[in-house]
Amino acid sequence: MHEMSLCERVMQILEESAQTQGFSRVIAVRLEIGKPDAVEPEAMRVSFEVIRRGTLADQAKLEIIPLPGEAWCMPCG
Fold this sequence. Notes:
It is built from 2 helices and 2 strands. It is α+β, with helices and mostly antiparallel strands. The chain is elongated and about 50 Å long.
């Protein structure tokens, strides 16, 4: 389940940002996730619930913004 590793990376980014920007609490996390990313939204929510415990995002709400899939053809542009 790669959603857990994605959530771990999100938490790392939040912690790094907290150090550089001086905040101590996160109340919401909004993620844009496209169809081609193969991320299961419910698995992402469950993973986030586990990862956020005891962190600066302990009470944060996860909002997933679904994006349609997009592709670009290199030969024809």
